[in-house]
Every structure is written in C-alpha cells, then in structure tokens.
Amino acid sequence: MAPDLRRAVEHAGYYPALVADVVAVALGGEEARAHLVHQETTFDGEEVRRHVTVVVLTPSRLVVAHADDGTDLVAEGSGSPRAHAAAASTEAVPLQQVRSVLLSHVVQRPDLYRAGDPAAELTVTIGWGSVQRLDLEPASCADPQCDADHGYSGSLSSDDVVLRVSAAADGADAVARALRFAAALSAATSTGPGPGPA
What are the DSSP E strand ranges found in the chain? Predict the structure, then answer.
C-alpha cells in the first residue's frame, strides 16, 4: 500500500492494521492514485460507535472499504461478552460503472466568498447503482379544492457512499483533502468510452 494511504489510515486511528489489510487485499497490488479516509463517531442512544470509510481511486477501479464496531462476541453459554468485534467489508467497482459523483459545498458568508476560498463543509456522494433509494410523496394537482387521489410522485437516487467532511469537526485540511479526491474521481469518471465505429 502507498505510504501516504497507509499514513492516512493510521491517522484515522480506527484499528489501522485491520483496515490497512482489508484495503490492501481489495487493491490487489493496483496503484492508488487518490484516496479519501474518513473516520466518524456516531452516538446511538447510550452507545458510542466508531467507523471508518476508505475510498481509493486506482487506474481502473474505485475501491471502497468500510470498518465499524460489530456486535460483541458472547462466550458460549455464559451470556456475558467475551470480546469486542469489528466488521470490515470492501467493494471494488470498475470506473465505467460509477454513475455519479455529487459534491455539496457549504460556505460561510457567501457574500464575502472569493475564488479559491475553502468550503466550511463538503459532502461527497458517489453512486454506482448498488444501493438505490426511492423517495415517494403524494402527488397533487394545481386545484386547491381537489381531493382526488393523484397517486404518488417520487425520485430514484443512487448514493452508495456518502461522506460528509466539515472544517469544524474534521479540520480545514480534511475538507481540502476531500475536495482533491473528489476532483480526481470526477476527472477519472469523465472520460467515457470513445465513439463506436461509424
């Protein structure tokens, strides 16, 4: 694994040896051209859960690794926790299958914004069709007196990976790194297959 990618995994601090190993297996020796490592802590009731997502751009694929806290293993017959568990999974997607790279920029004081100013927050959404979300709502017509059933209208979106990076939580450098990765991924997916034979 490239030294800068390994350093980023170690800096995230979530079981770096495990994460590095699963990423290395998924890369299969292929060069990492760009990467984004995002560690996040979430609160679920009284539990604190940590997880990390690693997204790597190679010459031919987008490799996504995710590791998070798993269910504690239970000693057989005792009912008491025996050891903590973590789960790690990877997915490798050919670049031709990446359908969308959506970037949502949030800036403070847009009235004072100047070209090149850093964003306060960046959300990177990458879709390749593995996960589809359907949002439905009741359809209506322009007549405010109408009480007929117009069925439903909705939208279908693909958002396989969503990473939100903010300067307040992650630091301005993390937002800049996310932006560089997103630019590299956008460039890599902008070149589709050439025209077929005439």
Answer: 34-44, 47-57, 61-69, 73-74, 81-83, 86-94, 100-106, 121-127, 132-138, 152-158, 161-166
